[in-house]
Design a protein that fits this description.
The chain is of the alpha+beta class and 191 residues long. Helix content is 31%, strand content 39%. It has a single domain, classed as 3-Layer(aba) Sandwich (Protein Transport Mog1p, Chain A), CATH 3.40.1000. The chain has helices at 2-16, 90-108, 160-164, 166-174, 178-188, and strands spanning 29-33, 38-42, 47-54, 60-69, 73-81, 114-120, 124-133, 138-147, 150-158, 176-177.
Length: 191
């Protein structure tokens, strides 16, 4: 299933890649998806799309995607629910991340350059994969977080300098769940 998700993302990214070139060095602005339960900062207003993706049981899952294209690449935030991962053990979650890495490798046609554990808030562990895209001379940097049955994906895809840029790191690190973001904002308020 994760391979199909990665393939669907790849098609969406390629179709929107290099659009809106004036956004290349634009100031980041906050975007919030109340339906998706997250916020992220992008260098422009994202284009929203959705697609149905079949999982391993043949059940079609709705994936929502938010994409901002620039002259050198694209930023993507997406999510979909997978009821099969309800109450998944830590081992099952790790297996899902491993499968996702294999799916990214297959979808982009390059070997995984790096796989790193990353955190969302204080207690949600995810993975970040960096995968070359040999056919396009580009790179994909993808963070995955499984929260309950929902898989969140935050990606930067494009030229190597775009994917490695400070702005890309800021976009990736700006992703937060609305509940966590509100809690963090409240904790920063002096009492």
């Amino acid at each position: 299933m994760l391979y199909r998700i990665a393939s669907a993302l790849l098609l969406a990214m390629i179709s929107l890649l290099f659009a809106n070139s004036e956004l290349c060095a634009a100031q980041l602005q906050s975007f919030e998806s109340t339906e998706g339960g997250f916020q992220i900062s992008f260098p422009g207003a994202p284009q929203e799309s959705e697609s149905e993706i079949p999982n391993t049981d043949g059940i079609r899952t709705l994936q929502k995607q938010y994409v901002v294209g620039t002259a050198d690449g694209a930023y993507i935030a997406s999510y979909q629910d997978n009821p099969n991962l309800k109450s998944a053990s830590a081992e099952r979650v790790n297996q899902a991340y491993t499968a996702a890495g294999a799916g990214l490798k297959k979808a982009f046609g390059g070997d995984i350059k790096s796989e790193t554990k990353v955190k969302l808030g204080d207690n949600i562990e995810g993975r970040e994969f960096v995968v070359p895209i040999p056919a396009a001379g580009g790179v994909a940097r993808c963070r995955l977080f499984l929260v309950g049955t929902r898989l969140y994906q935050i990606m930067a895809v494009g030229k190597p300098d775009f994917v490695d840029a400070d702005q890309t790191t800021k976009v990736m690190e700006s992703f937060a769940l609305l509940e966590l973001a509100k809690r963090n904002t409240n904790n920063d308020t002096p009492k």
